Amino acid sequence: MLDLASLFPFQLDTFQLEAIEALNQGKSVVVCAPTGSGKTLVGEYAICRALDHGKRVFYTTPLKALSNQKLRDFRDQYGQDQVGLLTGDTSINRDAPIVVMTTEIFRNMLYGTRIGETGTSLQNVEAVVLDECHYMNDRQRGTVWEESIIYCPPEIQLLALSATVDNSDQLTDWIQKVHGPTRLIHSTFRPVPLEFHYCNGKGLFPLLDDSQKKINPRLRERRSPKRGGRRSRNRIDLGFIVSQLQQKDMLPAIYFIFSRRGCDKSVDDVAHMSLVTDEEARLLKEKIDEFLAWNPDAAREGQVGPLYRGIAAHHAGILPLWKGLVEELFQ
Fold first, then answer.
1. Dist. CA 18–CA 21, nearest whole Å
2. Of 144, 118, 120, which is closest to residue 130 (Cα–Cα)?
3. Is residue 296, in this structure, part of any structural domain at all?
4. Residue 178 in contact with residue 146, Cβ under 8 Å?
5. Is the pLDDT of residue 327 over 60?
6. Which among 134, 177, 287, 309 counts the fewest CB atoms within 10 Å?
7. How many structural domains does the chain have?
8. How many CA atoms lie within 13 A of 316 on its CB side?
9. Cα(107)–Cα(143) distance, rounded to whole angstroms?
C-alpha cells in the first residue's frame, strides 16, 4: 500500500482519507465536495496507485479546455512520457499509463463492446476518473456519462468527482446497481469562500452587507422610479469593470460572454489596456514569440497584440493550437 505521507506532505482532510480508503477496498467512489476543497487529490491518489500496480488510468473531463489543462498538470507531476491526451482535435501518446480525455471519447471507446466485457482499448486500465460528473444532469450531454458508467467493465473502478450533485445518494445507488459496489463521500466544508460583488458606475462593491444576509446598502437605489417609468439600464463599460478588478487585485479573471463574436469584440474593447507587470510581460513575450516562431500561421488576426498585454478570447471558434497557447498562458 502506498505511503500517503510521502505522496502528500500535508495533512489530508477526513473526506479525502475516506475516499482513499474506499478505493483501497476495491469500491467505486462518488466524491461530492465544494470547489477548491481538494477532490482532485483523490484522483491523483488513484493515478499513483495504478502506476504503482503497473496499471493505467483514464482521466475524463467534460471539456477540451479542461483536458488540455489536466495534460499540462499531469505532465508536470508525472513526466512527459507518462501522460497522453485524447480529444476530438488531438491524439497524443494514447498508450500512456495516464490518458486524459473528454468523456465522449471514453464513451466512444466503449461502443462496440458488450456490457461487462473489456475491449482492447481498456486493457490494463485500473480506474477511470469522471471529473465534473454533475454534467450527467445536462439534458443534451447527460447520456454520455450514463452510457460511460453502464458500459464500463465492472472490474474497473470508477471515481466520480463533483462539486454540485443534488441527488448524490441516488447517483451512488444507481452506479452500485449498474456497475458494482460504490461508496458516497460527501463534504460541505468550503476552504475557499465564495464572494459576490456588484459593479455599477461608481465602482465595484460587495453585493452583501457584513452579515452576508442583506444587500449592501450602498447598492440600494436612493429613490424608486416614477410610476410608469423605467429603471435606467446603462451598460457598464467593460474597460471600467476590468480596471476595477485590476485596482482591487482581483486578476486574473474570466469574463463570460455568450457568443464568439462578442468575445472577440470584447478583446478589441480592452485591447488598449495592459493587465500584466513588466516581468509578466517579459515572460509572455518570450512564450508567445517562441510559439509564433514554430507556428507562424496559427496566430489570430488582431489577437497577438492584446495577448502580449494579458488579454485573450477563448471560444470554440479558435484553432486548437492558438487555444492551447491561451490556456497555457492563462494558467
1. 5
2. 144
3. yes
4. no
5. yes
6. 177
7. 2
8. 4
9. 10
pLDDT band at 230 (very low <50, low <70, confident <90, very high): low
Is the C-alpha dihedral spanning 163, 69, 297, 238 positive or negative?
positive
Q: Are residues 168 and 31 located together in one domain of the fold?
A: yes
Structural contact between residues 196 and 215, judged by C-beta atoms closer than 8 angstroms: no
Q: Indicate whether 216 belongs to any domain.
A: no
Which of 186, 221, 253 terminates a domain? The answer is: 186
* CATH code (residue 148): 3.40.50.300
**Domain residue limits at 257:** 235-330
Phi/psi for 246 (5° steps) reads -65, -45
Q: Return d(Cα 58, Cα 96) in angstroms, integer.
A: 10
Point out which residues pair with 129 in neighbouring strands.
59, 159
HSE-up of residue 255 (Cα within 13 Å, Cβ side): 21
CA distance 229 to 231: 7
| Orientation of helix 238-247 relative to helix 260-269, angle to 10° | 70
pTM of the model: 0.79
Task: Tell me the pLDDT tens digit for each residue of 40-93.
Answer: 999 999 999 999 999 999 999 998 888 989 999 999 999 999 999 998 888 999
Quick one: how far is CA 95 from the chain centroid? Answer: 24
Q: Which helix (H) or strand (E) holds 203?
A: strand 203-206
Phi–psi pair at 111, nearest 5 degrees: -65, 140
Domain boundary among 166, 186, 206: 186
8 Å CB contact between 52 and 2 = yes
> Given 3-state DSSP classes, what are the helix, strand and coil percentages for the chain, each rounded to the nearest 5?
40, 15, 45
In a domain, 96, yes or no: yes
Residue 223 has pLDDT above 60, yes or no: no
* Same structural domain, 146 and 31: yes
Query: Each residue of 146-190: pLDDT tens digit?
Result: 999 999 999 999 999 998 777 899 999 999 999 999 999 999 888
- Report the alpha-carbon distance of residue 72 to residue 328 in Å, rounded: 8
Integer Cα distance of 159 and 183 in angstroms: 10
Alpha carbon separation from 208 to 194, 203, 211 (Å, rounded): 12, 15, 8
